[in-house]
Amino acid sequence: MPFLIETFDKPDRQALRLEVRPPHLAYLDANANLLLACGAKLSDDGATASGGIYLVDLESREEAERFIQADPFHQAKLFAEVHIVRWRQAYLNRQNTL
């Protein structure tokens, strides 16, 4: 059952984001089997990240909460907010999956 996790960085935390990025990417690699899609939300010029979107294939909200809480970005207290919602996949890779 897919969940969408949207994160919002605290203001002025770009240096922390860059510092913690390598262990964050290692965490994502270690959990790639759970990721339907994942990536940073960027400023219009693409220079600055301000949070992220994770589409994860997990069985429950509790599993989604545990997943994001184990992310090094979360553990470094980068996020001001985290939103978790169930998601219904309708299209993936430009294909209808319903």
From TrEMBL:
SUPFAM superfamilies documented for this protein: Dimeric alpha+beta barrel
Organism of derivation: Vreelandella olivaria
Family recorded in the similarity comment: Belongs to the YciI family.
Protein's recorded name: YCII-related domain-containing protein
A Pfam short name: YCII
UniProt xrefs under InterPro entries: Dimeric_a/b-barrel (IPR011008), Sec-metab_biosynth-assoc (IPR051807), YCII (IPR005545)
Domain (YCII-related): residue spans on this chain: 1-88
